[in-house]
Amino acid sequence: MTNELRIAVLGVGMMGADHVARISSKIAGARVAVVNDYFTEKAEELAASIPGARVVNDPIDAIADPEVDAVLLATPGPTHEKQLLACLEYGKPVMCEKPLTTDVETSLAVVKAEAELGKKLIQVGFMRRFDNEYADLKALIDSGDIGRPLVVHCAHRNPAVPPHFDSAMIVKDSLVHEVDVTRFLLDEEITTVQIITPSANTNAPAGLKDPQIAIFTTETGRHVDAEVFVTTGVAYEVRTEVVAEGGSAMIGLDVGLVRKSAPGTWGGTITPSFKERFGQAYDTEIQRWVDAVRSGAETGNYVDGPGAWDGYAAAAVCEAGVKSLESGAPVAVDMVPRSSIPGA
Ligand code: ISE
User: Fold this and answer.
1) Cα(245) to centroid(ligand 1), Å
2) Do 226 and 175 contact (CB within 8 A), yes or no?
3) Crossing angle of helices 104-117/308-327, nearest 10°?
4) Does the beta carbon of 158 lie inside 6 Å of ligand 1?
5) What separation in Å is there between the alpha carbon of 54 and the centre of ligand 1?
6) 274 Cα: distance to centroid of ligand 1 (angstroms)
7) For position 2, what pLDDT does the model report?
8) pTM confidence score
């Protein structure tokens, strides 16, 4: 494709608006052609600030629009199934912010619909795979230099979350990234999940089970633990340590510049949110997606990164996680084998 990719951005809340700004200022070979949001005024205000962008009020009309080449979905999760199926129906490549859909059954239906089409059109926005530090860690593991990984320790801390965030959302919205990181780094599926809830943070909203400690077991019996703590009141922190047979490696120290100054103090800055911590990852993710879509007609491949299957696997692990949250016991992940869906 020689022309710029014309993207429809559906949903312009925090993430969608961030992607609109990114596409308009940093991404080569693409522009925002259409903006859609449930709140029309918000869409109109944003479109007015982007040369050549217009508002289409109905999300399915935006997907079907003949002057739209690809779709970026940053709409609420419950709308994804219908919108993804529409993207498949109209043959539009789509970058879908997580979750793929909000439950396992509909995620599987989307995987099957894409497989039947025989074309990979869906990419899921698990952006950590594009973060330079995670990419380095993955390359180190794949090089074999530290031997076979046996254990992974993850820490995932948010300073605060919106008021509607409940205990299950800690699993589906936050822990889900550790699920994807585990599958990405270890290249195998997660088979059981246990979630332990220690004494809750007294500064968290009443009833919120925060922090949570998740334990995953993988197909070959490897162990992953993840501390997810979303009301620390401090900063955004994401760390991963891999312990292998021939050494260990850690990313996410997030130290940046360390300043020493009189009278005898030292320190640096703290990262406020995922928008800053993973800014580079989002930029790389969207640029690589745009490049893949632009060359898709020749290569037959419209994704460069996690696809619908990865979204389904994450949904299945999170469903087991939510069950474990209620019982505290390990819960087996219920997933169909990938080989049962030709083309998935
Ligand atoms: C948020 O929705 C994200 O996706 C962030 O990456 C994650 O770190 C945060 O915990 C979630 O709430």
Assistant:
1) 31
2) yes
3) 170
4) yes
5) 29
6) 7
7) 57
8) 0.96
Rounded mean pLDDT of 315-332?
A: 97
Total Cβ atoms within 10 A of residue 39: 11
Q: Is 131 in the pocket of ligand 1 (CB under 6 A)?
A: no
Measured from the CB, is residue 174 less than 6 Å from ligand 1?
yes
Minimum mean pLDDT among 80-84, 169-173, 219-223, 294-298: which range?
A: 294-298
pLDDT tens-digit map of 30-59: 999 999 999 999 999 999 999 999 999 999
Helix (H/G/I), strand (E/B), else coil: 124 = strand
The DSSP string of 125-160 is --GGGGSHHHHHHHHHHHHTTT-SEEEEEEEEE-S-
**% of the chain beyond a pLDDT of 70:** 99
Atom of ligand 1 nearest to the CA of 278: 6
CA of 230 to the centre of ligand 1 (A): 9
Q: Rounding to the nearest 10 degrees, give the CA dihedral for residues 92, 94, 100, 105.
A: 20
Show the tokens assigned to 31: 């522009």
Q: Is 177 in the pocket of ligand 1 (CB under 6 A)?
A: yes
Bridge partners, residue 293, by sequence: none
Residue in the structure block whose two tokens are 């020689």: 2
**Measuring from atom 9 of ligand 1, which residue has the nearest CA?**
174
Is the dihedral angle over the CA atoms 320, 326, 330, 331 positive or is it negative? negative
Please name the amino acid found at residue 181.
Answer: V
Before 330, cis peptide (omega within 30)? Answer: no
